[in-house]
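How a chain folds remains the central question behind the approach discussed here. The record that follows shows the chain in one-letter code together with its fold in token form:
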Amino acid sequence: MLEMYVQGVSTRKVTKVVEELCGTSASKSFISSLTNQLDEVVHAFLNRPLERKYPFIFSDVLYIKVREDQRVVSKAFHVILGVNDLGELELLNFWI
């Protein structure tokens, strides 16, 4: 359900898909509460302290289509990646 919401599917359509796939109903308020939980997880991720050293940091932009004011527009999705001191690639931040 959260993946559908992230992809821009309306809560009404998410409710219909859940009913068709699972044979049970999910209210719009239930879907909204799930999306609020997702917002909390994303907020916590974006505001976490960075505790490692990142000798290399990369920044890139991906243009995506989003729904805004009842129309679809192109927005820049910024991504910041870091290579930590162990050589592992980590997602450090993102925003639209």
